[in-house]
């Protein structure tokens, strides 16, 4: 690896550390805007992995060509080359599908975190969580008390 590639790799690594730190800070301090760069990175990464899966599906011979370009001392290179190409494509597509499913789950986790923080900062709807982990949405105070008919106050307290 030459110096230019090393500098690019270091810059990308530092940028990824910064984006992950921003997401962690945003989740900790409940600032939704700090989570957006990490969410965008996840979407970009998901799109690139989807393109890899499409490439494997459209050009199945590219896998064999890639394996031939590996160095001769690469572990299990000859064993992989001996596998039926159709079976190898199916195995790789299965593996990529599992990875894409996991990445989709992580994207939904970050999106739910973002929505939770945005919902928590808005005063339109109050959220009340009961002890058995069910969520009840309470109406705004004005809607609950301003329904037109004023209720009578309770009778005065009389001590026994």
UniProtKB/TrEMBL annotation:
The keyword rRNA-binding does not apply. One of its GO terms (cellular component) is lysosomal membrane. Its main location: membrane. It is found in: Cell membrane; Cell projection; Endomembrane system; Endosome, Multivesicular body lumen. The keyword Ubl conjugation applies. Keywords: Cell membrane, Cell projection, Endosome, Lysosome, Membrane, Transmembrane, Transmembrane helix, Transport, Ubl conjugation. InterPro entries: LAPTM4/5, LAPTM_transporter. The chain crosses the membrane at residues 7-28, 34-59, 80-102. It comes from the Eukaryota. Pfam families: Mtp. It is a multi-pass membrane protein. Homooligomer; upon reaching the lysosomes. Interacts with MCOLN1. Interacts with NEDD4; may play a role in the lysosomal sorting of LAPTM4B; enhances HGS association with NEDD4; mediates inhibition of EGFR degradation. Interacts with PIP5K1C; promotes SNX5 association with LAPTM4B; kinase activity of PIP5K1C is required; interaction is regulated by phosphatidylinositol 4,5-bisphosphate generated by PIP5K1C. Interacts with HGS; promotes HGS ubiquitination. Interacts with SNX5. Required for optimal lysosomal function. Blocks EGF-stimulated EGFR intraluminal sorting and degradation. Conversely by binding with the phosphatidylinositol 4,5-bisphosphate, regulates its PIP5K1C interaction, inhibits HGS ubiquitination and relieves LAPTM4B inhibition of EGFR degradation. Recruits SLC3A2 and SLC7A5 (the Leu transporter) to the lysosome, promoting entry of leucine and other essential amino acid (EAA) into the lysosome, stimulating activation of proton-transporting vacuolar (V)-ATPase protein pump (V-ATPase) and hence mTORC1 activation. Belongs to the LAPTM4/LAPTM5 transporter family. This is Lysosomal-associated transmembrane protein 4B. It comes from Carlito syrichta.
